[in-house]
Design goal:
By secondary structure, the protein is mainly α. The chain has 6 helices and 2 strands; from the N terminus they run H-H-E-E-H-H-H-H.
């Protein structure tokens, strides 16, 4: 256990991030923050932990799992505040994933009222797009929403 006299208390971190104290403790258990302790055993956080916890909160809202976030945090230097370059590297990784998700959501939005290539053939329009369930040759699920195109089987 590292001892540290100064730093921010868990209450101060909670006030600054808007996270519940219990959430901050949970994120600590998950290895997303690693506070020091003072001589009385109280947690002491670095100001950089505000950014880490805020990033966790935003990344989760965007649909990233704690495992995905933890994997990216593993590349951050232990014991020093991450630099702009450190955060840029994480941002590029998550940005590429977000771009892929946005493309998928856009396709879903644009095709939701049309055939999605599921093979149900219940809509007349579906029959035109997925004649004789041709999409099934490409695999399970809504093939056209997964990126397949009609006639590409």
């Amino acid at each position: 256990m590292k001892l540290k006299a100064s730093g921010l208390s868990i209450g101060q971190i909670a006030d600054r991030t808007g996270l519940a104290v219990s959430a901050i403790r949970f994120y600590e258990e998950q290895g997303l923050v690693n506070p020091d302790r003072n001589s009385g055993g109280q947690r002491r956080y670095e100001r950089a932990d505000i950014r880490r916890l805020s990033f966790v909160m935003i990344a989760q809202r965007l649909g990233f799992t704690l495992s995905e976030i933890r994997a990216q945090f593993a590349a951050l230097p232990e014991g020093r505040t991450p630099t702009k370059a450190d955060w840029s590297k994480i941002s590029r990784h998550f940005g590429a994933e977000l771009d892929a998700r946005i493309a998928g959501l856009t396709a879903l939005r644009d095709r939701l009222d049309k055939c999605i290539g599921c093979g149900c053939l219940s809509l007349r329009q579906c029959h035109l797009y997925n004649r004789q369930d041709e999409a099934a040759a490409n695999g399970q699920g809504p093939r056209y929403l997964l990126g397949d195109t009609p006639g590409a089987g």
